[in-house]
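From: lab user (bench 3)
To: helpdesk
Subject: output format question, protein + S-adenosylmethionine

Hello, I'm new to running complex predictions and I'm not sure whether the block I got back is the full result or only part of it. Here's what I submitted:
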Amino acid sequence: MHTTVSLVFHLPAKFLRNAPKDAPAVRIGLVSPTVGYGLFAARDLSKDEFIFHEAPLMTALFNEKFSADASLMHSQHQAYKAALADGGQDVVTLAFPMLAARNGFPPASWEAAEPIFSAESAEPDVADSAKKFLGKNLVHGRFAGSTITQDEYETYAAGVREMLIAKPTEEDRQRACLDFFKNYAFQVKRTMIPSTIPHLPAGPAGGPITPTATATATTITSKTNSDACIYLLGSLINHCCTPPSSSSAYVTRKRTEKGPNCEWRIGASGLAHFVEPKHICVQAKRDIKEGEQLTWDYGKREKGFVCECATCRDTFMGYYCGML
Ligand SMILES: C[S@@+](CC[C@H](N)C(=O)[O-])C[C@H]1O[C@@H](n2cnc3c(N)ncnc32)[C@H](O)[C@@H]1O
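Helpdesk reply: Thanks, we reran it on our side. This is the complete output you should expect:
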């Protein structure tokens, strides 16, 4: 008992923070037919609040040559197939419809989608129904369903249906998976878990797939390989550009109002004791109102889409983004 007290006393303050509230925190919504799905606040969230944390839905091998190395296609394809076997077609056609379409699965009908989207306050430990799947991997911070209307869904699904490959070859499927992992996966360092002390961080945190990312590792013992992890809800969070510091009063004013409202970490290191290795933890960068879309900055890597974020819309950033 005495030992525990002194250990807790020496923990850095950041590890003594509270886990996310076990209350419905996020909803899925459709942002636009081109941006696709996004995640929205299901209630007011305060600055620095942990919103949710979530175990990965699937993982594959990652290495520095990730985007170029065709030999890695196989591992990504295997991970996708495993997720399909685990969650079924409902999961891939709803959570990752573009990937599914390119693998030959048409988007789910509204009748099939609606009961899954409306999984109000799904219990994370109830796994007996596909209706609960979208919240299944959440550890804290419940999933509160969705706000998608039938019209919105059908417009979006029609767009996705256009990219359907009727009879995909094995090569088509593998290529689709590689592309999917490039757009959706987080780079997560493998770790040895050297800690023998409960509640202390076990190893390095992950970093995003960006050249600028730095791991916030405390101790790295041996393995340096990484996994590419897909999170069912975390991977649905869209990008928002961070407005640059600028002498322009207009941009500076917008900077305080807009820009990404969330940040994320993977694993316990540098964050809080309740986060397991490979779990993604999402935290509010500022106060967020119910209904506001959750966003973060994807970093400097090549994005592969025309940015439609609020910063680009409301400031001169759109001009610069359009030139990249
Ligand atoms: C990690 S996923 C986010 C979830 C995605 N919207 C969906 O429906 O599956 C990243 C993809 O979302 C889209 N996206 C994300 N942020 C965007 C933005 N600011 N503007 C336009 N498209 C965006 C792009 O297609 C990108 O490849």
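A quick orientation on your result: Residues 1-8, 192-224 have pLDDT under 50 and may be disordered. Let us know if anything else is unclear.
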